[in-house]
Design a protein that fits this description.
The protein starts with 42 loop residues before the first helix and ends in a 7-residue tail after the last helix. The chain is globular and about 65 Å long. By secondary structure, it is mainly α. The chain folds into two domains: 195 residues, Cytochrome Bc1 Complex, Chain D, domain 2 (Orthogonal Bundle); 169 residues, Cytochrome c-like domain (Cytochrome Bc1 Complex, Chain D, domain 2, Orthogonal Bundle), CATH 1.10.760. The chain has a two-stranded antiparallel sheet. A hairpin with a 6-residue loop joins strand 1 and strand 2. The protein is built from 17 helices and two strands. The longest helix has 13 residues.
Length: 434
């Protein structure tokens, strides 16, 4: 079946955005000032992310160490239509670093009590997201927000729900390891214990030596974060039924999904304004861009009193101090969205149907309790959240399109799977890394 003509604006070429709801003084833009982080991430992280200009200082520290020695370069296996990700010059992609990073990503020795790994909250079957509404750290502490999917994180120009300063995967890896508010992996004050654990694992010796040749002692925090970041950059998803249809296999998407696509890219629904481009998000960077695109939006999820969000989730305001930024969050990628429930930054909407209800009403109404309020009346809400009406059939079509963004090959790709399972199978006994 031929695909119907698309409405103005598409995932490849979104419609022009009038008064795009970007960070107004230019985070990511030439000459833009960096915001001072107002949330404390813990004393241990403070040693690695100094309070004043922490991300910039860390980036300079990485750069001062120089690029890794020449080694077997990583060959990108990019889906059709995907540009090359931007990679820091001081951490070029190599096969050996990716292999090491994959082992570290799945290793529970990277948590203080040995109970969690990166993969605990970023599960491959869930497109490297977490089925819990909010993250739960290694000590049992419940976090204010849910872990985001790592699908296509190589293209993310901002790496968390609301921090415009968190721009590199190398820097971000320090936060779950050493952060104390909240505790995630719980390694604060246990850096030497981490190094001891890694050196005691015999598989790591050759892996570190191959990834960082020529270094007398390659087991360093900088190298650990570089390796994890290298693996995370390989988590690229772009072979869903939607993509196959986009590149000529029109039978890959059902008729319902094709009708849903037309709704998604219509001015009636406005979805594409915040979820456009090849990665279905406005917060994107790659080698073709002159500078990164960084966007945060208030979708009317809450309106406590007049314009307020729950105290533990102020959004971008936590970093800018501006009242109008309260509740503004990053719009995540919609790729594999059917796998990443529950939804929104705090996991407060359990289903895609509920998300559609939220946007159809131009904001969520909470009738009772401490968070009661009419989200549609939030004075800081994005200009693109205006509500809409859909028939039951149209809702089903839109859901079908969102399901057509599921990349089954991504969630079953052995290159992204737990490498420690090979050792477990060979030895016939349990092994600590997940």
């Amino acid at each position: 079946m031929p695909r119907p003509a698309r409405s103005p604006g598409s995932a490849r070429s979104p419609a022009p955005r009038a008064q795009r709801p970007t960070v107004s003084d230019g985070v990511g833009a030439p000459g833009g000032r960096a915001y001072r982080a107002r949330r404390r991430v813990g004393s241990a992280v403070g040693r690695w992310l100094p309070a004043a200009g922490g991300i910039a200082v860390l980036a300079l520290a990485f750069a001062a160490l120089g690029a890794a020695a020449p080694h077997e370069e990583w060959q990108w296996d990019l889906p059709p239509g995907f540009p090359r990700p931007r990679v820091p010059a001081e951490n070029p992609m190599t096969v050996a670093k990716v292999a090491l990073g994959r082992h570290l990503f799945y290793d529970t020795r990277l948590s203080g009590n040995g109970t969690q790994s990166c993969a605990t909250c970023h599960q491959q079957a869930r497109a490297f997201a977490d089925p819990q509404p909010r993250g739960v750290g290694s000590t049992g502490e419940v976090h204010p927000r849910g872990p985001m999917s790592l699908a296509n994180v190589a293209y993310a120009s901002a790496l968390t729900w609301a921090n415009p300063n968190m721009r590199t995967l190398e820097a971000q890896a320090l936060v779950p390891m050493f952060g104390e508010e909240p505790v995630e992996l719980g390694l604060a004050g246990k850096e030497q214990e981490l190094f001891r654990r890694i050196r005691a694992e015999r598989r790591y010796g050759p892996l570190f030596a191959a990834a960082f040749p020529g270094e007398a002692d390659p087991v360093t925090l900088v190298n650990i974060t570089r390796a994890i970041a290298s693996f995370e950059r390989t988590l690229i998803s772009g072979r869903a039924p939607y993509d196959r249809a986009e590149h000529g296999d029109h039978a890959a998407m059902s008729a319902a999904a094709q009708r849903g696509e037309q709704l998604f890219f219509s001015e009636q629904l406005e979805c594409f304004h915040c979820h456009g481009g090849y990665n279905f998000t406005g917060t994107t960077d790659d080698v073709t861009k002159g500078f990164p695109e960084v966007e945060f939006h208030n979708t009317g999820l809450y309106n406590i009193g007049r314009g307020h969000f729950p105290a533990d989730n102020p959004g971008l305001m936590a970093f800018t101090g501006r009242a109008e930024d309260e509740g503004r969050m990053k719009a995540p990628t919609l790729r594999n969205i059917a796998l990443t429930a529950p939804y929104m930054h705090d996991g407060s909407i359990p289903t895609l149907e509920g998300v559609i209800d939220h946007y159809a009403a131009a904001g969520r109404t909470i009738a009772d309790g401490p968070h009661r309020g009419v989200g549609a009346d939030n004075p800081n809400k994005s200009e693109f959240i205006n509500g809409f009406e859909l028939t039951a059939a149209q809702r089903a079509d839109l859901i079908a399109f969102l399901h057509a963004l599921t990349d089954s090959s991504f969630i079953t790709d052995a290159r992204h799977a737990n490498p420690w399972l090979d050792t477990l199978a060979a030895r016939g006994r349990p092994r600590r890394p997940e």
